[in-house]
Amino acid sequence: MKIALIGHGAIAGYVAANLPANSRLVGAICRPGREAAARSALSAVPALSVADLPERPDLLVDCAGHAGLRAHGPSALTAGIEVLSVSVGALADTGFCAELEAAARAGGTRLCLASGAFGALDALSAAAMGQGLAVTYTGRKPPQGWRGSRAEEVLDLEALAGPVTHFSGTAREAAQAYPKNANVAAAVALAGAGLDATRAELIADPGVTANIHEIAAEGSFGRFRFQIEGLPLPGNPRSSALTALSLLAALRQRHAAIRI
Ligand SMILES: NC(=O)C1=CN([C@@H]2O[C@H](COP(=O)(O)OP(=O)(O)OC[C@H]3O[C@@H](n4cnc5c(N)ncnc54)[C@H](O)[C@@H]3O)[C@@H](O)[C@H]2O)C=CC1
Ligand SMILES: O=C([O-])CC(=O)C(=O)O
Question: Where do the coiled-coil regions begin and end (predicted)?
Fold first, then answer.
């Protein structure tokens, strides 16, 4: 399987270093001027677009975040190249979501969304087939996990004495306001009750060292709670290691004769 990546950061680095044996990296799409950085981070041929890749990939894996999916997702899909993405929150923009869907249909392929830093999405999808599903998502990270996010505009991350909720609203609002931190909120919402009906709370907590994601779901199926304490990737305290592992799991599943 020929794989190309978008991005050369913490998630891309982990994926590139741990590709399954049946896969080969054909290139990595980066921003203009970042070619040398991409080459040295991934030992991959850098490219500025899907068309610029040295070989046509079977799968384009977006590890770059919302901007990367925006820039390269539609062209890959239109060209019939399947895309696997961690940038789930980008679909909170209804216009962009429609563009991706139209591109996938035009190319006869699909966009797959990684389960990312969270899980239990299968149970949420099943629960959504019943009635009255209500879901609340809470994302809790140590202060350094919120650096570079809108949290910095409302609180002094260095001076927190205890946990502070810096966002409360819908999953759609969270995904759009926190593109680097609330992809899990979007994934939970897309799998379950929807982007506008899923409640999201984001908390900076100096008392934790892990990225803690939790949902409480209730409906005609019954109820469940699910929590993950995810350790961050060494290269980026914002991103949980499970995100990179979820991409590797999706690669393995892609050719499995029996899928779970
Ligand atoms: N679905 C999920 O559960 C999760 C999703 N994420 C998403 O993954 C993104 C990447 O995470 P990390 O690897 O930790 O971040 P990072 O900051 O280490 O790496 C991001 C990489 O993407 C590149 N990039 C940015 N814009 C680009 C563009 N337009 N074209 C090509 N490359 C571009 C950067 O140069 C950098 O190499 C996050 O910003 C977040 O949106 C992160 C964690 C969990
Ligand atoms: O990696 C994490 O823990 C979650 C995250 O950043 C996101 O949801 O975008």
Answer: none
> How buried is 91 (Cβ within 10 angstroms: 0-12 exposed, 13-18 middle, 19+ buried)?
buried
Total domain count for the chain? 2
Q: Which two tokens stand for residue 137?
A: 């998502």
213 is catalytic: yes
- For 201, phi and psi rounded to 5 degrees? -130, 135
151 annotated to a ligand binding site: no
- Look at residue 16 and tell me if it is in a domain: yes
How many Cα neighbours within 13 Å face the side chain of 225? 3
Instruction: With beta carbons less than 8 A apart as the criterion, state whether 87 and 184 touch.
Output: no
Residue 141: domain span? 121-238
Domain boundary among 113, 133, 149: 113
- Please give the number of the atom of ligand 1 that sits closest to the Cα of 118: 3
User: Low-confidence residues of the chain, pLDDT below 70?
Assistant: none
Mutate to test the pocket of ligand 2, among 202, 238, 246 (most ligand atoms within 8 A of CB): 238
Assess whether the C-beta atom of 193 lies below 6 angstroms from ligand 1: no
> What is the pLDDT at residue 259?
87
Alpha helices in 79-182 (DSSP H): 94-107, 121-128, 151-154, 171-177
Q: Does the residue 249 lie in any domain?
A: no
**Has residue 248 been placed in a domain?**
no
Sign of the torsion formed by the C-alpha atoms of 228, 233, 236 and 239 = negative
And the tokens for 105? Answer: 């249909």
Rg (CA), the chain: 18
Is position 183 annotated in a ligand binding site? yes
